[in-house]
């Protein structure tokens, strides 16, 4: 996203468009107009957004209950509404959210109030060093630096250099047994509707970086995928199967639906 769009309430912002699509109220007229345009183009987008949040809830449980993480650091979090990570973790888990949009951060503070063990910082996902060296964040992290990082719903908004720097920094900084949960936001690049979608985003100042799973695997190196391949969000622990009609699943085709996986420190 261009720097001017980040905190400018007169220009559409990806996080606020997403909030509107999810049925939230933390958005402006300009975001609503952009969202309506996108929904007209791809009517299943609201379901896609919900699917993305369902998978996040599942990830929250998997990271804590199955994989034993006590600290989750989430980048490009958007709004921490009821469908976000901290709603589905055991008491005592530390959840550190962040986003580079100051308006989102302000709304997030309003939403969270004084929820225990949940924090929200303004930070650019492409500069994780700034967040991790923030003295308040440092005081929340344990000496073993065993952390579960989450980069969900944002890879398409970040260019290759930014993404490569972020994942390598997280790999080098973190302690053994850390992990990174990564979402590939794929799209059929040959599909005319998908092309219109990308073109529309570009026209409102939000360039999208669409990649295949293979391209993402190269980018996330040296993190190692836990499993053979990224898993489609549609197949993610059967999420969405009941909610999505057959034609929606078909519609996810051009959008790819995205996929995700757990990357572990090699
Ligand atoms: C589509 S929302 C996804 C929110 C959440 N991660 C989820 O999956 O539900 C994308 C968010 O990424 C944020 N964002 C985009 N680029 C970013 C960057 N470089 N650093 C931090 N946040 C970023 C936007 O402000 C927006 O809130």
What brief labels describe this structure?
eight-stranded mixed sheet; 42% helix
Strand percentage: 5-15%
Q: Into which percent range does the helicity of residues fall?
A: 40-55%
Q: Determine the number of helices (DSSP H or I, runs of at least 4 residues).
A: 11
Going by CATH, the homologous superfamily of the domain at 51-189 and 219-264 would be: Vaccinia Virus protein VP39
Alpha-carbon Rg, integer: 17 Å
Q: What is the molecular shape? A: globular
The chain-level structural class is alpha/beta
Name given to the CATH architecture of the domain at 51-189 and 219-264 = 3-Layer(aba) Sandwich
The low-confidence parts are: none
CATH class descriptor of the domain at 51-189 and 219-264? Alpha Beta
Mean pLDDT: 89
How far apart the termini lie comes to 31 Å
Largest sheet: 8 strands, mixed
Q: List all distinct small molecules, including ions and cofactors, that are bound in this structure.
A: S-adenosylmethionine
Run of helices and strands: HHHHEEHEHHEHEHHEEHE
Number of strands: 8
CATH level-3 fold name of the domain at 51-189 and 219-264: Rossmann fold
Can you walk through the features of this model?
This protein is of the alpha/beta class. The protein has a domain at 51-189 and 219-264: Rossmann fold, CATH 3.40.50.150. 42% of the residues lie in helices and 14% in strands. It has eleven helices and eight strands. The chain has helices spanning 3-6, 14-21, 29-41, 45-66, 102-112, 128-132, 135-140, 160-173, 192-203, 213-220, 246-255; strands spanning 71-75, 94-99, 118-122, 148-151, 179-184, 224-225, 231-232, 259-264. α2 crosses α3. It is globular and about 50 Å long. The site of S-adenosylmethionine has 23 residues, from α2 and α4.
